[in-house]
């Protein structure tokens, strides 16, 4: 039996690595076309104006603060870890299929929507791995739409887009062990004081401009449920040092009403309640990016707590990479089984 060929695409938004206005322009335009237009109607001519304004603003801000995004470097490292873990897994599927793991991005090259047609031609099946734990139209939904645009009704037998990763117990355990292992000495030595934890996640739309629930899938219920389960497990852990855990959403400013439990609100409440220190952990992102390591971290630094710590995203943690590889293998096995079933039916007279 001829081995099947499968491609695994580890994908995320993507941010420019070399900060120039020329590099930022196409990225900003794609974001507006793909994501922002789902929330607000933007005339085509305005897309270029808004995108160019945003690009210039980011360029000045990041250059002045000497910031360069680490998102692509992290995603490439995650891709290598997943590929190595799959190769070393000893999975029975490896005897029946060859598996190639690559990285791609929504808004910077190599573009996912350009790569998918190429992979469709060269491989028997594809598993797309959006590197965001909570799915919505703004995150994993971007990959889903690209797949639907390419495959149409045949997508279920050719490609799988992974989702609902936030529900996995093993991920929760990896997160908690990682978080406590990263706590600094000043934070640990502050046991006599009150230490708060802000779990950072991308916020989502609650009501549109008319005051109604949005028609698109926002992932609001999933965002709330993910926070509740993580807070419960962190507070119940024997190593817990936190007096309370608060959600810290990072919102946009357009489209209507966004999630109210923001980073700013959490920090202000901790300050008002006399907390001695705060730890921030972006659990809603699998990789650090400008929103986490720059925007969120800056809010924490400026909050004025005597003790504070920013714990980086799970990034290229080996435990996380091995877990993700196992999840990918499960998806590949399911795809292999489905295709085999279709082929056996097709062979019957």
From TrEMBL:
It is an enzyme of class 4 (lyase). CDD domains: Ferrochelatase_C. Its EC number is 4.99.1.9. Coiled coil: none annotated. One of its GO terms (biological process) is heme biosynthetic process. It catalyses: Fe-coproporphyrin III + 2 H(+) = coproporphyrin III + Fe(2+). It comes from the Bacteria. One of its GO terms (molecular function) is ferrochelatase activity. Keywords: Heme biosynthesis, Iron, Lyase, Porphyrin biosynthesis. InterPro entries: Ferrochelatase, Ferrochelatase_C. Belongs to the ferrochelatase family. This is coproporphyrin ferrochelatase.
């Amino acid at each position: 039996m001829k081995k099947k060929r499968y491609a695994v695409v580890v994908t995320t938004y993507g941010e420019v690595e070399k900060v120039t206005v020329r590099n930022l322009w196409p990225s900003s335009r794609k974001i507006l076309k793909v994501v922002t237009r789902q929330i607000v109607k933007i005339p085509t001519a305005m897309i270029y104006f808004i995108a160019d304004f945003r690009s210039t603003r980011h360029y000045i801000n990041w250059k002045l603060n000497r910031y360069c995004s680490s998102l692509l470097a992290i995603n490439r490292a995650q891709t290598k870890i997943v590929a190595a873990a799959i190769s070393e897994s000893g999975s029975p599927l490896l005897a029946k299929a060859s598996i190639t793991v690559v990285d791609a991005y929504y808004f910077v090259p190599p573009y996912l929507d350009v790569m998918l047609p190429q992979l469709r031609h060269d491989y028997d099946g594809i598993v797309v791995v959006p590197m965001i734990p909570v799915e919505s139209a703004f995150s994993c939904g971007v990959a889903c739409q690209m797949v639907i645009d390419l495959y149409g009704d045949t997508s279920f037998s050719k490609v799988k887009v992974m989702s609902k990763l936030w529900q996995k117990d093993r991920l929760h355990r990896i997160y908690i062990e990682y978080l406590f292992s990263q706590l600094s000495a000043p934070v640990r030595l502050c046991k006599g004081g009150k230490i708060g934890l802000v779990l950072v996640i991308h916020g989502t739309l609650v009501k549109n401009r008319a005051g109604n629930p949005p028609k698109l899938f926002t992932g609001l219920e999933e965002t709330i449920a993910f926070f509740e389960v993580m807070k419960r497990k962190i507070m119940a852990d024997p190593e817990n040092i936190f007096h309370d855990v608060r959600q810290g959403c990072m919102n946009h400013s357009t489209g209507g009403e966004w999630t109210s439990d923001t980073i700013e609100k959490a920090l202000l409440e901790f300050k008002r309640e006399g907390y001695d220190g705060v730890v921030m952990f972006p659990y809603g992102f699998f990789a650090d990016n400008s929103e986490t390591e720059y925007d969120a971290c800056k809010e924490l630094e400026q909050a004025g707590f005597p003790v504070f710590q920013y714990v980086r995203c799970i990034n290229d943690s080996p435990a996380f990479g091995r877990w993700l590889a196992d999840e990918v293998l499960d998806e590949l096995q399911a795809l292999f089984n489905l295709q085999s079933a279709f082929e056996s039916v097709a062979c019957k007279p």
